[in-house]
Design a protein that fits this description.
Layout: E1 3-10, E2 13-21, E3 39-43, E4 48-49, E5 56-57, E6 62-66, E7 71-72, E8 78-80, E9 85-97, E10 102-110, E11 113-123, E12 127-138, E13 143-150, E14 155-157, E15 165-170
């Protein structure tokens, strides 16, 4: 089959008989877990101006949680994978503008290149939210960033824990 029998210790409890896709490194038949489950939720705490016509990385600066300190909210504003695996990535941005219409696009970048994209098209609203999610295979050292683009005037990403955020979870 395309699955291998694995076991793991999670939060001090032994879990065995679970199945995980082949391709994970062999480690005495143990699922690769670094200090428990790998995952993070970060958000933008203050508004961030988005220049016209420039793909701009969201400078996530606050963590709700980060199980293994893999999300850098100080320098690079990105998540770095600690182990090989599949990760569920969700990125949402609330754009606020003083003019309309404009086109807004959100991207999930993997290692500095576009992996997923969602284009809102032209909007007649002053507030637009874009939500994008994908499952991405990462190896140790791969990194994920949330990036946006707009071609309007006076656009910013809203800074608030429920407006502009990203979650990344290994499964």
């Amino acid at each position: 089959t395309d699955y291998a029998l694995v076991s793991a210790a999670i939060s001090g409890q032994q879990v065995s008989g679970q199945r995980a896709p082949l391709g994970f490194p062999a480690n005495n038949n143990k699922f690769p877990v670094v200090n428990g489950l790998n995952g993070a939720r970060v958000y933008l705490s203050n508004n961030q101006s988005i220049p016209v016509g420039v793909a701009t990385r969201i400078a996530f600066d606050t963590k709700d949680y980060d199980t293994n300190n893999n999300f850098d909210v100080v320098t690079n504003h990105r998540y770095t994978a600690p182990v090989l695996g599949y990760y569920l990535v969700t990125f949402t941005v609330l754009f606020t503008t003083t003019t309309n219409p404009q086109r807004i696009i959100s991207y999930i970048y993997k290692n500095g290149s576009v992996f997923s994209t969602l284009n809102s098209g032209t909007s007649n609203n002053l507030n637009n939210s874009i939500f994008i999610t994908d499952i991405i295979r990462l190896i140790p050292g791969d990194y994920i960033e949330g990036v946006v683009y707009q071609d309007g005037v006076g656009v910013h990403a809203n800074g608030w824990s429920t407006d502009t955020w990203m979650t990344i979870h290994q499964f």
